[in-house]
Every structure is written in structure tokens, then in C-alpha cells.
Specification:
The protein has 350 residues and is an alpha/beta fold. It has two domains: 204 residues, D-Maltodextrin-Binding Protein, domain 2; 125 residues, D-Maltodextrin-Binding Protein, domain 2 (3-Layer(aba) Sandwich), CATH 3.40.190.270. The chain is built from 15 helices and ten strands.
Length: 350
């Protein structure tokens, strides 16, 4: 890594992080306060974007507009932010497989993805606003994957919009926010014939008289398991990366150490993810399976990068992005390599 003079270092004593209410390495590390402690030793405060009382700050969870900020979570907002001109870099990727279900009513005559031909498929559409419609991108990706697997032409189904409110970005109370309630209600009412649900919301959905006809997570090809949640990029603004590379490396080193801890602590991992997602531990196990604790190492493997590349292509093709961007230059492997050399220096204090 190139030398950065002391004069060019970022002269701030606060860094920011944000993560989605899904299983992330950053979520575990901040929940255990390992990230905060690592920076506090340097006199730096690591603060939560989604916990801010300022909506403009909270919107950086989607816009990635706040200098000195790290993000790990669903791939739609960081791809959208980069397409909108935010100068960010992908410095790691995690991939947590999760149940991805296409659900129908229990009394429906739909038994497989092949039976979706001619049916009404529900797609949420958020209220007016200039933030990307993550829920719609998530549902459309899942439903199109199911059609591909079932060999059902896209033009042989009917997509039905389900109006939904703007996403609430506040960290406090976010666990109680249910973005899947309206699609479930539409399905129960017979307005649509099938919907897509993934992750921690699966357990509740399965108690609502709904039946899965396909689980995309059972596909052997990881490219058929792509979703708005997987792969999950770890991103940072380029200003921080250029002027404070040691801070980026330190952040990633804590994530690498956290992933090592997770491998040895499957039950505590479930407990933390339950707190992060706002569901019971048994629902975490149902949604993410017995290998969850093995899924938290940030990597830039060929499969992870290709998955993210295809998600960008999907979002562009489906009109979620205002413009294309150079994907390869978005990926920067140097910080993760630097972090790997530092990981043995990281001590995770209880």
C-alpha cells in the first residue's frame, strides 16, 4: 500500500458505520462492541448512521453520502449509490445463504414454479421518494429466478403492484418493521397468487397459511441464489480509503477476526443475529440454516465478485439504476490484503 503522509490523513475523530438488520459481520462486531473498541483505542468514535436523529445522516445508509463511512448489508443501495456518482469502493464481500421462498396460499393449485404461468405475482412498490426501491428489487429478483428455474416465460405472468410505505431507516425499532406484511396480506386476500419472501421474515410468513413452492436457496448454482441480500458488499468512501487507509484496514481486520470467532461460536452467533434481525433464535436457525456461523468471512473471491457483478447488471437492466458504471474499478482488494496482515494483532474483548 502506498505511503500516505501525516498531513494527508483524514482529520476527523468520528467514523461512521451502517449495516442492514440481517446477518452481517459488521453487525456482530458492533453488537459485541469490538469495532467501537478497536477505534476508541485510537481516540476515534465509531458511530451508527441508522441511530442518528438526523434523517440526512440516516439516508447515508442508502446514499453512502457521509464521509468517513463504512457499510455492510444488502447490495441494492451500494450499487445504486455508486451508479448515482458516490465515490465508494468495495473492500470485501460476505455471503450468507438464506431461505428464499416463493409462497402461495395453502389452498392454491400451484405446486411448483412451473405452475406460475398465467398467474399474478405480487411486487411491492414503495411510496414516492428518491431512494431506490429495495423491496421491489428484492421481490423481482426472487420471482424472476423462480420463473427461470420453472422455465416459465416472463411475459406469461402478470406482475401486480402492492403499494408500500417508504422504508424507515432508524435503527431504534427497526426490528419491529415488517416490510413483508403487505405482500402477505395481498396474497391472503387473493389479490395476487404468489409472492417472494426471504431471510428472517420466512418463519412468520409460514405461520400465515402460506405454502412454499420453491426455495431458491436449494439451488446448487450460487448464481441462482443471488438476491438483494447476497452477496453483501463491504463498502467505504474513497476519501477515507485514500487518506486513512490504516483505518479501513483496521475495520476489516476486526471483521476478519470476528469471522474467526463466529466459526468457533455457532450458538452465540445465532443469539447476536436474533438481536440484529429482531426474531427468535429458532427463527434464525430456520431462515439461515446450520452453517450460518461459517458465513461471515469478508472475501473477494471470484464467486462473490461475480455475484455482485450480476446483481449490478440485473439492477441496470430492470431500471433501478440511472446509469452504468465501471464495475471492475469499484473493487479494491488492497485493503483486505492489508487487513489480513493485521488480523493477528486484533484482540476481541468481551
Amino acid at each position: 500500500m502506498s505511503h500516505v503522509s501525516p498531513e494527508s490523513q483524514v482529520a476527523v475523530d468520528t467514523l461512521w458505520y451502517t449495516r442492514c438488520p440481517v446477518p452481517t459481520t459488521s453487525g456482530i462486531a458492533q453488537h459485541k462492541r469490538w469495532l467501537q473498541n478497536a477505534f476508541a483505542a485510537q481516540g476515534i468514535i465509531l458511530d451508527s448512521i441508522r441511530a442518528s436523529q438526523d434523517r440526512a445522516v440516516r439516508e447515508s445508509h442508502f446514499r453512502h453520502s457521509l464521509p468517513g463511512s463504512f457499510r455492510e448489508g444488502g447490495n441494492v443501495p451500494p450499487i445504486w449509490a455508486r451508479a448515482n456518482g458516490q465515490d465508494t469502493a468495495v473492500v470485501g464481500i460476505t455471503w450468507v445463504d438464506e431461505r428464499q421462498l416463493v409462497l402461495v396460499r395453502d389452498d392454491a393449485d400451484i405446486r411448483s414454479a412451473a405452475d406460475l404461468r398465467g398467474r399474478r405475482l405480487g411486487l411491492v412498490r414503495k411510496a414516492a421518494g428518491d431512494l431506490v426501491d429495495v423491496g421491489r428489487a428484492e421481490a423481482l429478483r426472487g420471482l424472476l429466478s423462480a420463473l427461470e428455474i420453472g422455465e416459465v416465460p416472463r411475459d406469461s405472468v402478470h406482475f401486480v403492484d402492492i403499494e408500500a410505505p417508504e422504508w424507515e431507516l432508524k435503527e431504534a425499532g427497526a426490528a419491529g418493521q415488517d416490510h413483508h406484511a403487505l405482500p402477505i396480506q395481498a396474497l391472503q386476500a387473493g389479490v395476487v397468487d404468489a409472492i417472494f419472501i426471504k431471510g428472517a421474515a420466512v418463519a412468520k410468513a409460514l405461520t400465515q397459511g402460506l405454502r412454499p413452492i420453491i426455495d431458491l436457496n436449494e439451488q446448487a448454482d450460487p448464481m441462482l441464489r443471488l438476491s438483494a441480500g447476497s452477496p453483501r458488499p463491504v463498502t467505504v468512501d474513497r476519501q477515507t480509503l485514500a487518506h486513512a487507509p490504516e483505518r479501513v484496514a483496521r475495520y476489516l481486520a476486526v471483521l476478519l477476526k470476528t469471522a474467526q470467532w463466529a466459526v468457533q461460536n455457532p450458538d452465540p452467533v445465532v443469539a447476536v443475529v436474533a438481536a440484529e434481525t429482531g426474531v427468535a433464535a429458532e427463527d434464525v436457525r430456520l431462515a439461515f440454516g446450520p452453517r450460518l456461523h461459517l458465513s461471515f468471512e469478508p472475501q473477494l473471491s471470484a464467486v462473490y465478485v461475480e455475484g455482485l457483478r450480476r446483481q449490478k447488471a440485473f439492477l441496470l437492466a430492470e431500471g433501478f439504476l440511472v446509469r452504468d458504471f465501471d464495475f471492475d474499478s469499484w473493487i479494491d482488494p488492497a485493503p483486505l490484503a492489508h487487513a489480513a496482515a493485521l488480523v493477528d494483532q486484533v484482540v476481541l474483548e468481551s
